[in-house]
Amino acid sequence: MQKICKTCKKDFEIEQDDLNFYEKMKAPAPNYCPDCRVARRLCFRNERTLYKRTCSKSGKPIVSLYPPNTPFPVYDQHIWWGDDWDGVDYGQDYDPSRPFFEQWLELRNKVPRISLLNIDGINSDYVNNSEDNKNCYLIFGAQKNEDSMYGRLVYRSKFAIDNDFVQDSEFLYECIDCRKCYNCMFSDGCETSMDLIFCFNLRNCQNCIFSINLRNKSYHILNQPVSKEEYEKKKKEILSSNKKLAEAKKEYEKFKKEAIVKFSHQVKCKNATGDYMYNCHDTTHGFDAENTKNCKYVGDTEGTIDCWDMNNTYYKPELNLDVMGTLQTYNIKHSVYMMYTSNSEYSESLHNCDSCFGCLGLKKKKYCILNKQYTKEEYEKLKEEIIENMKKEGVYGDFIPPFVSAFGYNETLAQEYFPINEKEAKEKGFNWQSETSGTYGKETIKEENMPETIEEVTEDILNQVLVCKDCKKNFRITKGEFDFYKRMIIPLPHKDFECRNHDRMKNRNPRKLWHRSCLCKIESHIHGSKKCENEFETAYSPDRDEKVYCEQCYQQEIY
Ligand SMILES: [Zn+2]
Ligand SMILES: [Zn+2]
Ligand SMILES: [Zn+2]
Ligand SMILES: [Zn+2]
Predict the structure, then answer these.
(1) CA 446 to chain centre
(2) Which of 36, 62, 314, 500 is close enough to 32 for a disulfide, judged by CB 3.0 to 4.6 Å?
(3) Closest listed ligand to the CA of 11
């Protein structure tokens, strides 16, 4: 079935497996293309734009995802979880003569929202979508870390600064997609390795610089063996000044372009398309997906089964359609932040609930509509009436519309994966936050006067205001960061954490697939003197320089 996307006006295909799934979920086909659907879900996810404000109940200062001037109340997270307020107190009647989401927005403007999701954090106030972190600062989607700062999707790590998608590591700086690494910098896709600088896809390696696709090696530079002294000399040279470090970055980027890469980052996957996938089965268009089965259009997802159109979903969600943010949900449609909840639709922030429709901020409730309590019979009847009216409005089957999101597009993950400007965002019906946090022009050290070496930096830097080279936003160096740079002998960054994150994310593949064929021409392979003809879906775009190989050719060259 072909449709034209209501946002981008492009044709998109709804395939037979999509239709089968919609039928199973009793949902009509969506009016938006897969990419626009992701953006519509992600514009409800502000992970890291934090503000200082006061708690609307206690009046105490808090760190929050919401600026001070919101129409709705914001409660400190501990107060929000408490029993002395109840979401049904804000319940309202459904008015069949008015659009459903207009009424949903009225509810949204009344119900208290949680300041942020930072469960059991110790000395870690500026952390969100996270659990069990100690002495951490500005990390997001993070679990069980200590003394770590700046980054997304950081798990079980210590002294990890400026990293994304890393796990079980210590003393990690500016790395992406690394696991079980120690004392590594500026590296990506490395595992069980130590003392790496600017390395790509290494396993069980030590003391390597500018190296790619190595296994079980130590003391290598540019993939060639070197002496311990040569390694130490090169390391010292790279880290000796900001200028040298910038040159090294360029050299690494150039060297990396010659690499052989596998068409997709997939480990133990079967019948899967997408990228950065681990143990995924029968999963199409999966990105950063782990342990999924029979899923399509999923991103940042773990243990997800029989689900379509999902982002940031964990703890075995099953039979869900079009949801952003879940923990252990069953039969949920078109909703945001649903935890331990089942059989619900068009809702946001429900916890331990069942059979709710169009609700917001409820705990342990059943048969509620627009936060009002009904009997089972009343609930079923009114739900059907609303669905019929929504179908007439032409909105049933699509995600909660962006105009009811509590965030500006530019505060959310949507901006990270589908960056647009204010004008475009507004044209597409998204909100925009014009007063994001941060200051400009207050720097006490100009960018050109930044110290070149870490040796010349003293603790006085903690009192200084610095300025980002790219976006000109002011930023500071924290004590933990200062100690880390001194210990690791790393020159100070010249960019704020947002721009650093942006630079790292540019080194990951986009969440987009191209149909390509293997570029291998190695004669000793089974395809002989002819080019390999295997085809695949890959997130390496056709204009990339890397040698993109199929599974078989890749395995023969890199084990
Ligand atoms: Zn579209
Ligand atoms: Zn910046
Ligand atoms: Zn091949
Ligand atoms: Zn080959």
Answers:
(1) 32
(2) 36
(3) 1
Q: Which residue has the tokens 């105009």?
A: 403
- Write a three-state SS string for 213-244: CCECCEEEECCEECCHHHHHHHHHHHCCCHHH
Q: Is the pLDDT of residue 437 over 80?
A: no
Domain range annotation of the chain? 2-31, 140-258, 265-328, 447-506, 514-557
* CA 97 to ligand 1 centroid distance, Å: 30
Mean pLDDT value of segment 8-16: 96
**pLDDT of residue 435 exceeding 90:** no
Instruction: Calculate how far, in angstroms, residue 8's C-alpha sits from the geometric centre of ligand 1.
Output: 4
Q: How far apart are CA 16 and CA 26, in angstroms?
A: 15
Closest CA to 346 of 354, 232, 356, 79: 356
The pLDDT tens digits for 499-521 are 999 999 999 999 999 999 999 99
Burial of 506 (0-12, 13-18, 19+ CB in 10 A): exposed
Query: What residue spans of 297-375 are helical by DSSP H?
Result: none
CA of 253 to the centre of ligand 4 (A): 25
Q: Hey, what are 465's tokens? A: 């205001």
Mean pLDDT, the chain, rounded, equals: 96
Cα distance between residue 412 and residue 21, in whole Å: 28
Q: How far is the CA of 471 from the centre of ligand 2 (A)?
A: 4
In this structure, of 173-177, 233-237, 394-398, 436-440, the range with the lowest mean pLDDT score is 436-440
Distance 198 CA to ligand 1 centre (A): 37
The tens digit of pLDDT for each residue in 68-82 reads 999 999 999 999 999
- Ligand closest to Cα of 429 equals 1
Q: CA angle 415-417-420, nearest 5°?
A: 45
